[in-house]
């Protein structure tokens, strides 16, 4: 920025280069339960899904997906999945998968296979992998060590292959098609929750990229925020100028803490009134709503007001399209709601656009006819 002027061409060049994709944290059942990063909890989930005889409907998908990542030709007829497997040295292995030799047909002719899985989330890798691996006294071709981690990590043992949680789950999702048609809804939900939970923790991998992007582009980012503030201020001023030109309606500003600024409402106790509600500069749009409202004292007449015989066809169409927004709990109902989308053409003279909309023949026609009807009904009551 120079002399208070923002170089919009430079900003456009910045935007044309592309904005990095930002992953946002998504709350999962793991967060709600209070143990999203507990390794024991994740190991329990993995062990459940790896056992094809559990009632998840995935069969051996988790197991075969892991074996594919390991480039292994192991095959388990009856896999036995054990949590917290204890070695002779009393070390505990997170998950061990082996052939259930007592349940497998032809087990005497088979060589036993072992998957030795250590699951890491945030803890450092300082396990006794030698003990884990050597506990199973079979040929090296019949056992594989797996180090699960959030990010690529050196296993510090040449027999343990590092696989990330994201890699494993991505492989599961890429091969889920064959079981998806008959997959229980509960399993699909659990699997999505697990994936979101792992994605949440993998966000740390992108933090450096986020920091670098912000550091390189901080001036452009600030300028965009400045433009947004300037546009917001200008639109509010234009709305105010429009209100000044509509002095016959005696608009009053109403502040609402849960809205950006508030809105303008006719300062009247009558049962019908006009409001002007700016919705300014959300992520992509700005707009102004002009509304004919029925107050709480007129809600008992709402049905008649929606179907006045005096309406023209065009007026009737406007009323009918606006009667789906019920606000009885708040003591009002939108009878007509017109949305003025702010764009580069009308923003310069937005105040006139607002004035013209309210004074439009069909809009003001509805307003006057409703007032006349209410006045007539109230007069008849008084008599």
Element-by-element helix/strand order? HHHHEEEHEEHHHEEEEHHEHH
| Number of structurally distinct domains | 2
Strand content: 15-25%
| Straight-line distance between termini | 69 Å
Q: Main beta sheet, described?
A: 5 strands, mixed
Task: Sum up the overall morphology in one term.
Answer: elongated
Structural class: alpha+beta
What does this structure look like?
The protein has two domains: 29-202, no CATH class; 226-382, Yope Regulator, Chain: A (2-Layer Sandwich), CATH 3.30.1460. It has twelve helices and ten strands. Helix 10 packs across helix 12. It has 383 residues and is an alpha+beta fold. The chain has a five-stranded mixed sheet.
Task: Based on the model shown, name its key terms.
383 residues; Yope Regulator, Chain: A; 2 domains; five-stranded mixed β-sheet; five-stranded antiparallel β-sheet
Summarize the model shown:
The chain has 383 residues and is α+β, with helices and mostly antiparallel strands. The protein has twelve helices and ten strands. Helix 4 (61-69) crosses helix 6, helix 8 (204-245) crosses helix 11 (350-358) and helix 10 (313-321) crosses helix 12 (361-382).
Write the layout of secondary structure elements.
Blueprint: H1 8-16, H2 29-33, H3 39-50, H4 61-69, E1 79-86, E2 92-99, E3 114-119, H5 129-134, E4 143-149, E5 160-164, H6 165-174, H7 185-202, H8 204-245, E6 251-255, E7 262-266, E8 272-279, E9 287-295, H9 302-306, H10 313-321, E10 332-341, H11 350-358, H12 361-382
Parallel strand pairs: 3-4, 4-5
Antiparallel strand pairs: 1-2, 2-3, 6-7, 7-8, 8-9, 9-10
């Amino acid at each position: 920025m120079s002399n208070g002027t923002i170089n919009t061409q430079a900003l456009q060049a910045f935007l044309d280069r592309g904005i990095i994709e930002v992953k946002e944290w998504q709350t999962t059942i793991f967060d709600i339960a209070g143990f999203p990063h507990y390794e024991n909890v994740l190991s329990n989930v993995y062990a459940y899904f790896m056992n094809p005889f559990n009632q998840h409907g995935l069969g051996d998908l988790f197991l075969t997906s892991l074996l594919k990542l390991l480039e292994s030709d192991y095959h388990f007829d009856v896999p036995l999945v054990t949590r917290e497997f204890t070695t002779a040295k009393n070390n505990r292995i997170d998950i061990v998968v082996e052939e259930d030799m007592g349940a497998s047909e032809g087990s005497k002719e088979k060589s036993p296979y072992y998957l030795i899985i250590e699951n890491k989330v945030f803890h450092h890798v300082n396990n006794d992998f030698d003990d884990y691996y050597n506990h199973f006294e079979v040929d090296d071709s019949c056992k594989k060590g797996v180090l699960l981690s959030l990010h690529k990590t050196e296993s510090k043992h040449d027999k343990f292959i590092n696989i990330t949680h994201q890699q494993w789950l991505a492989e599961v999702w890429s091969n889920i098609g064959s079981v998806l048609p008959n997959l229980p809804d509960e399993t699909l939900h659990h699997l999505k929750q697990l994936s979101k939970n792992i994605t949440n923790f993998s966000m740390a991998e992108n933090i450096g990229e986020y920091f670098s992007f912000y550091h390189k582009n901080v001036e452009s980012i600030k300028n965009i925020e400045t433009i947004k503030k300037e546009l917001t201020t200008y639109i509010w001023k234009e709305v105010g100028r429009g209100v000044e030109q509509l002095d016959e309606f005696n608009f009053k500003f109403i502040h609402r803490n849960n809205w950006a600024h508030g809105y303008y409402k006719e300062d009247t106790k009558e049962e019908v009134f006009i409001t002007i509600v700016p919705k300014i500069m959300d992520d992509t749009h700005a707009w102004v709503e002009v509304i004919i409202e029925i107050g709480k004292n007129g809600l008992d007449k709402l049905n008649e007001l929606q179907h006045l015989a005096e309406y023209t066809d065009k007026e009737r169409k406007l009323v009918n399209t606006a009667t789906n927004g019920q606000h009885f709990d708040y003591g009002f109902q939108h009878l007509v709601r017109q949305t003025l989308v702010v764009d580069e053409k009308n923003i310069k003279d937005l105040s006139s656009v607002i004035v013209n909309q309210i004074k439009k023949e069909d809009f003001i026609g509805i307003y006057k006819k409703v007032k006349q009807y209410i006045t007539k009904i109230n007069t008849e009551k008084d008599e």
